[in-house]
Predict the 3D structure of the following.
Amino acid sequence: MIAFKNVHKFFGPLHVLNDVSFRVEAGEVVVICGPSGSGKSTLLRCINRLERIDGGEITVGGTRVDDATPDIARVRAEIGMVFQQFNLYPHLRVLDNLTLAPVRVRGLSRDQASGIARELLAKVGISEKETAYPAQLSGGQQQRVAIARALAMQPKIMLFDEPTSALDPEMIREVLEVMVALAKEGMTMVVVTHEMGFARRVAHRVVFMDQGRIVEDATPEAFFTQARDPRAQVFLSKILTHI
Amino acid sequence: MTEDRSDIRRLVQSPRAKLIVWRFACAIAFVLAVRVIVRLDWATVAASWLFLLTGLGRSWLLAVVSIVAGGLAAAPLALARVYGPPGVRQAATALIESVRATPELMIVFWVYFTLPIVTGNQVTSWNAALGSLSVIAAVYLAEVFRAGLYSVPRGQSEASAATGMSSFATFLYVVLPQAVRNMVPALIAQLVGLFKTTSLVYAIGVMEFFRSITVTNNAVFAPYELYLVLGLGYFLSCFAITRVVRWFDPKYQLLE
């Protein structure tokens, strides 16, 4: 479904992605973790070309998404994305946040799009807020709306860029529960997160990055019990003591 | 004895007492002001009310036309400065910065006195006024628009792009509505400023509000009355502009 082949990316002199190759199959849930600055968010953002790459090749569903693709919007329509800072449209009500892209990109009627949107809001548990503005919601509610907004395009892949990092602890759970339910439905998901409990519960694979390289790519069980790379061991020892 | 005095001090310093004193002072000031105003000779001013009102009307016409024309020019100017390709961007920046960095009065003079030398045709003072005020409005409004565009966080256009929206749709439905709302305070300040700037064309002989007040004063000599009217006229006009802009977008504070 997603394939990286020898991908390189620089921010100035900084080599943020260094010869990255990896694959995500349809229906897989892959968690990407690693210390900050390791390139995990950049890797995720390359999948829908929010970041351009400087070398290598990326394909999504058989379509090249690096610079060779002229019509990136069509590829992006099939890839949902959830951001750390939610990025809901503050000038639109919740329902309109969900229907904007289906109406403008898919060409659905407003009624059709609203129907889908209401189903999704029910699914993430905030039906009663459809006429609220984002500023009137809690962080956890906003992130669940953001997930519903991404799902409203009925994507084949969902990308999550540290979806719980900006949330208070009691709100992290409600967002993770939505993500777990999504994973159990068989959605293809790539999740950048530090939530190791989530990784253990639903991930098929855990990818560990450090300094722009993928240094571990294993099942959660193998990753948590017998990580080979010393940097992964250090990372785990730091983060697992807090669970 | 000392206890009594501290009681009195506490009473005087209480918020309630302060409010009463303040209101009392305001009332006295108001009564005095009214007495002075009533004693002034309003008959001479009243005689030229139509002339003065026409002047105020001209000021409004100048303001509205130059703001509309300037606003229409400002939009592409701001877009060029923010999204334009190299070359276009620098040209827009140079134009905006050079007009902003020179006195408005000089722009008025340039259009009125220098343009005829270049084109060979005489420019009427009214057209020169409209032209120069439009240029001034264009560059100042362009900067307001630009600030509005920059005020929308990058994450907004990224979120929109990630759902497959084209860059044009992203601009139209996501960036622009937020930019416009964020612009409102700066826009009010700029429009009020532009209304007051219309008084500059007084210098090239346009009979707008400021000039009609001065001309009337030269004829009848009633400076207190006339300059009170002048101040009131500009105040009410600018106040109206503020209200009108807010009326267009009563919900803009909901953004945060």
User: Anything to note?
Assistant: Chain A has nine helices and ten strands.
